[in-house]
Write a structure and sequence with these properties.
Layout (H helix, E strand, L loop, with lengths): L1 E11 L6 H7 L3 H17 L5 H6 L4 E2 L40 E3 L5 E3 H8 L20 E11 L9 H5 L7 E12 L11 E8 L5 E2 L1 H15 L14 E2 L4 E2 L1
Parallel strand pairs: 5-7
Antiparallel strand pairs: 1-6, 2-3, 3-4, 5-6, 5-10, 7-8, 7-9
């Protein structure tokens, strides 16, 4: 099972660093380690509930008889029917109504509208009221399979040529990046070399346009070719360079 996490990060660039230096840093093992440390708390605290829990929600719906006492534990595989209750759904803050509208009574005894708790458990694996822990959708060891980092450019960068943007100094400035991390589950004793990592880096303008170092170099080469017959050297963007460095997430 693969997990994809999207986060926005900020950090202060080193002194005298250029934008091209920031992009190069996005392709280093140090950046992978930093991102793993950054997203690990998110993965542990915001894990969705397992599919088996989601499938059981329909069998936990109640619509009649007596409501069980809140806080009374029941088997996760068997939920006895119960009835209307005079309490609110803490997710939407609306009353749990009698009649045709179904609501769910969780094994911990707390009750919610079926659509509300279904949406909640797609993002979290605990009861909204008491933090009763359900089985998580993912657990075990994971390795970073791809890490795509997009540097968010400022408004003043839009009119500049791409090559000039690469050479812009951002030393000691706070730079922002949107990072998409894909993790793949791995065997407990698998070798790290079995899971190569792909590191990509690009730049995004405030209007959503994106480009890589290779595109900037190609644009500069084309411009120079039109004004001179001399040979020009370009820098290889290397945005898809594979890395063997792997980091596992439990």
């Amino acid at each position: 099972m693969d997990i994809t996490v999207r986060v926005e990060v900020q950090y202060v660039a080193p002194e005298n660093a250029l934008i091209r230096d920031v992009l190069q840093m996005f392709r280093t093992p140090a950046w992978v380690r930093f991102m793993v440390r950054y997203i690990s708390p998110h993965l542990k605290n915001a894990a969705p509930a397992d599919k088996s829990v989601m499938d059981n929600l329909a069998s936990w719906t109640v619509s009649g008889a007596k409501t069980p006492k809140v806080g009374s534990k029941r088997s996760i595989t068997s939920v006895s029917p119960s009835s209307s209750c005079a309490q609110d759904c803490v997710i939407c803050l609306s009353e749990l109504q009698n009649g045709d509208e179904q609501f769910v009574s969780l094994p911990c005894g707390h009750e919610f509208h079926l659509p509300c708790i279904r949406s909640w458990l797609k993002l979290r694996s605990t009861c909204p009221s008491c933090r009763f822990q359900f089985r998580k959708a993912f657990s075990g060891s994971y390795a970073v399979r791809t890490l795509n980092s997009a540097l968010l450019l400022k408004q003043e960068h839009r009119p500049l040529p791409k090559e000039e943007i690469l050479n812009t100094c951002v030393g000691r400035e706070t730079v922002r990046a949107v990072v998409n991390v894909t993790l793949s589950q791995i065997a407990a004793h698998a070798k790290q070399s079995q899971y190569p990592c792909v590191l990509n880096a690009l730049m995004i303008h405030s209007n959503g346009d994106s480009f890589t170092e290779a595109a900037a170099s190609d644009a500069a080469l084309a411009k120079n070719s039109n004004s001179s017959n001399g040979d020009k050297e370009t820098e290889d963007g290397g945005s898809n360079e594979p890395r063997s460095k792997r980091t596992r997430v439990a």
